[in-house]
Amino acid sequence: MEIEAAKAGYTGDGTVDLRGRPALASKTGKWKACAFLVVYEAFERMAFYGIASNLVNYLTTQLHEDTVTSVRNANNWSGAVWITPILGAYLADSYLGRFWTFTVSSLIYVMGMMLLTMAVSLKTFKPTCSNGICNKAYTSQIAFFYLSLYTIAFGSGGTKPNISTFGADQFDDFNPHEKRIKASFFNWWMFSSFLGALIATLGLVYIQENVGWGLGYGIPTIGLVVSLLIFYIGTPMYRHKVSRNKSPARDIIQIPVAAFRNRNLSLPNDPSTLHEYEPQHYIDTGKRQVYHTPIFRFLDKAAIKNGNTDDSRPPCTVTQVEGAKLVVGMGMIWLVTLIPSTIWAQINTLFVKQGTTLDRSLGPNHFQIPAASLGSFVTLSMLLSVPMYDRYFVPYMRGRTGNPRGITLLQRLGIGFIIQVTAIAIAYAVEVRRMRVIRVHHVLGPKEIVPMSIFWLLPQYILLGVADVFNAIGLLEFFYDQSPEDMQSLGTTFFTSGIGIGNFLNSFLVTIVDKITGKNGGKSWIGNNLNDCHLDYYYGFLLVISSLNLVAFMLASSKYIYKKESVDVKEGCIDLVEAKAMPTPLGICN
Q1: Which backbone phi and psi does 362 adopt, to 5 degrees?
Q2: What is the pLDDT of residue 312?
Q3: Are strands 450-453 and 358-359 parallel, antiparallel or unpaired?
Q4: Is residue 78 a contact partner of residue 348, using CB atoms and an 8 Å limit?
Q5: What DSSP string describes 250-314?
Q6: Residue 571's pLDDT is what?
Q7: What is the pLDDT of residue 84?
Q8: DSSP 179-194
């Protein structure tokens, strides 16, 4: 089927255009289609980071929330932004498809941005301020502000999991040339994301604090609208994957149910005797056959032939069982990404509050650097590292390992997590020095500036940016690559939900640590006055749990076995993607 499609000039993976017609390989997809998506991604990230990077400051200066409450609310909103993609991915995979889910959700996103711009611009919706001091906001104003924020979160739930996977869909895995191009897709996709974040942390943050919050939110709102128009101009060039399974999540759930039903049956010694369709079935249907792996063997009982006495309910196939195994395996890796996501949450919360206590003057005119703008160094380090990783590191390692990616996906994650632990160790050391300077100079008041340059924080920001090139991009690619074929939108929500849970976990930790350390009149580790608390203890606590999590990741990744499936269908043979554990290179068909 794929061979016939290629001869007719169509894509080999069965993608279609918006009208459902087979997609012409020469006129659709590849980077010429992705260019329109990349523009949207850059503007959307500019909008998101324009809010997230300075939200704590808005909550404390404009809505008069205390430090712990503002950190908690900022984390909760960020968590919602990253957790709602589970719903958007389910709708895309099971009902609407990626394109239409994205279309509806993007309109909700834009509406939320418009409401938020109104909330910080119109006198009716924002607290009145005089000489930089704002009155306490009315309950209705606070409610409208958070309604706007969570409308954005709801809209993001449908755009985030589908736009990147829709971009990856533009490359045909059955075309060797396109498959090689796709190997770099996620690197350059995240590059555009970092570019949008850089504009937000450098430009929008300054506008928000020095010109006005209304303009600071209005610019990304207009940019988002323009980027959507650009996105729809590219519609004739897009390829759309046809879902061959209307309820992939339900099919995954039926595997453990069937395995439990057959729990008293013995597994055959030869896995080839388990139920599976002939290879020709997968060639004819355009689906990918996934081959047996020797992990989670209990689930293999779902594919035992004659294990079910009900003839109307045939046994599950090995491909279906392996799909469930993939989800379980990804869940195991997902669990050990939660702590790294908690560390990442510090960039837009405690790192920002820490920066507000330091000397932020620059140059002879004493230009005041917005504390949130230091987040731009995270993005700058990413922007510099991505081309170096893609153009130098990958080719060098490819020559040594034979792996088209240079190193395996889990090795990439491991390197990123090690760099991240180093970053939080440096953050702890810098905070210890800040506390020593406070004692030496007798800095007591919450508004007093510590005579220590804000640029002491740069190493932790830069290292977290470098770490993200390995772990953020690596996680996105890992969950897309290892997902069952019909669940790739839902698969990427492992990535987004991990970040979301990490934000919620940070919110929980901040709240609990504050209550425990501050009870009975004790000095809270995270108090309203950061000049009179023990933030260094909290960073030390994060260093300990992130180090323990790194050990857990090493254990989990050593047990993980990569997906093994048929990808390239050729005359007379089927090439396989080999399954290997982390210590050896992941074999991938070229």
Answers
A1: -140, 130
A2: 59
A3: parallel
A4: yes
A5: HHHHHHHHHHHHTTTSPPPSSGGGS----HHHHHHHTPPPB---SSSGGGGGGG-TT--S-TTSP
A6: 37
A7: 92
A8: HHHHTTHHHHHHHHHH
Per-residue b/e over 93-130, b at no fewer than 16 CB within 10 Å?
Answer: bbebbbbbbbbebbebbbebbbbbbbbbbeeebbbeee
pLDDT score for 584: 33
Helix (H, G, I), strand (E, B) or coil at 565: strand
CA–CA gap between residue 587 and residue 562 (Å, rounded): 9
d(CA 172, CA 181) in angstroms, rounded, equals 10
Strands 573-576 and 358-359: unpaired
Give the amino acid at 213.
Answer: W
pTM for this structure?
A: 0.76
Q: What angle do CA 499, 504, 506 make, to 5 degrees?
A: 95
The closest of 113, 501, 120 to 335, measured between CA atoms, is 501
Taking CA atoms, 305 is separated from 253, 265, 275, 279, in Å, by 19, 10, 6, 18
Length of the chain (residues): 590
- Amino acid at residue number 564: K
Helix/strand/coil (H/E/C) assignment for every residue in 367-392: EECCHHHHHHHHHHHHHHHHHHHHHH
Query: What is the tens place of the pLDDT at every residue in 21-70?
Result: 999 988 998 889 999 999 999 999 999 999 998 898 899 888 888 888 88
Those residues of the chain that have pLDDT short of 50 are 1-3, 568-590
**DSSP-assigned states of every residue in 106-118:** HHHHHHHHHHHHH
Helix (H, G, I), strand (E, B) or coil at 467: helix
Residue 589: Cβ-neighbour burial (10 angstroms; 0-12, 13-18, 19+): middle
